[in-house]
Amino acid sequence: MTVLLIDDDHEVLDASRQTLELEGFAVEATTRPEDALDRLGPSWPGVVVTDVRMPGLDGFALLERVRAADPEVPVVLVTGHGDIAMAMRAVRGGAYDFIEKPAEPSHLVEVVRRALEHRRLVLENRSLRAQLAGGGSLEARIIGRSAAIERLRTAVAGLADAEVDVLLFGETGTGKELIARSLHDAGRRRAGNFVALNCGALPDTIIESELFGHEPGAFTGAQGRRIGKLEHADSGTLFLDEIESMPMHLQVKLLRVLQERVIERVGGNRPIPLDLRVVAATKVDLLRQAGEGKFREDLYYRLNVVTVPLPPLRERREDVPLLLRHFLDAAAARARRPAPPVDAAALARLAAHGWPGNVRELRNVAERMALGFGDGLAGGPVTGAGGGGIEPLAEQMDRIEKQLVEDALARCGGRVGETADKLGITRKTLYLKMRHHGLHRGDFAEE
């Protein structure tokens, strides 16, 4: 991020440059505003701080030229001849801020810092939107840049055309139906129906009819023929969510369907051949359920040809900004209002959250943010501070850093060298951070 400093007074220019450089900013200083315009554009990572009264191209004319190149480049106007009328003109012209000379160094630094943060967020949001819009079908649908999501997309791409049934395993809210639809849409069965059934949402009395259909008179109230979910999914895909909730007597019939690809409607005797793929999903360990007599072991092994694990959001926190931008844009479009900006503090709070509801919870957060409810986090501060208060920034950042280091060590099996490489820091720095946070390598070592 760069501060482009423009002033025709060499002494003022040097003084402002030194003030900003002492605060760690990268500064490009010039007395010729025309020279600065060539580098500006939608991807330029910086802000403009310019004098107003200059020979040739003055500050207001420069502001117009900058906004023509990119209206979201922050321009800070500085003048020794300011008045209310000039300040109003600056605001109406789209200036980020207006400072009177001689500029108080601390005030100049604070304005520039806020302007750079604004520009950084603008560029980050543009990058996220470009990734969402410009990726291929799977990249645009299965959103994320983490290693876990890359592996998931690779698995979906490899299984899309494979004629095998698939078992999806993941916590609530990890996107099991999304992955099932992606398997269907990316495969050769995309022209057929995608039929979803939540096995835990239907009472035992009607789930058999929902699955297999029925003939007229099969039971009281069955006045006509009904095509069931299995038959409706012929040539397509049947998605059975919460498969662990399926009654035991229906598990036997489902096993026969998976083995023979034939059904009989309730109250009927005619076998009906089917050509379909079954994708089942569960949030529990089905093998353990089978050992406890709560799920048929033979059905488990029939479903478990290929199991695809779905990572919880807490294990891919780096995907939170991209997912948040996607959900914010969608929610804002539905609400017919512009998507709100997300500042660094809000992203830090979101990154520190445990996400027990996973992606579904993040989507709800985005909905609340789009409607103007702050950072969208319900039930008090996400960091766990009691009483609804705000913790000091240093304490919040300290806890966030500890969480990120813990996650990285856990993913790398406690290997310090690999963890340091992944985090982009030296071994010594990582050891110091581990000591500071009371972390021990052995706590994360793989067994």
UniProtKB/TrEMBL annotation:
PROSITE patterns: RESPONSE_REGULATORY, SIGMA54_INTERACT_1, SIGMA54_INTERACT_3, SIGMA54_INTERACT_4. Signal peptide: none annotated. The modification 4-aspartylphosphate is found at residue 51. Residues 142-371 form the Sigma-54 factor interaction domain. The keyword Endoplasmic reticulum does not apply. One of its GO terms (molecular function) is sequence-specific DNA binding. CDD domains: AAA (cd00009), REC_DctD-like (cd17549). GO terms for biological process: phosphorelay signal transduction system; regulation of DNA-templated transcription. SMART domains: AAA, REC. Residues 2-116 form the Response regulatory domain. InterPro entries: AAA+_ATPase, AAA_lid_NorR, CheY-like_superfamily, Homeodomain-like_sf, HTH_Fis, P-loop_NTPase, Sig_transdc_resp-reg_receiver, Sigma_54_int. Keywords: Activator, ATP-binding, Nucleotide-binding, Phosphoprotein, Transcription, Transcription regulation, Two-component regulatory system. This is Fis family transcriptional regulator.
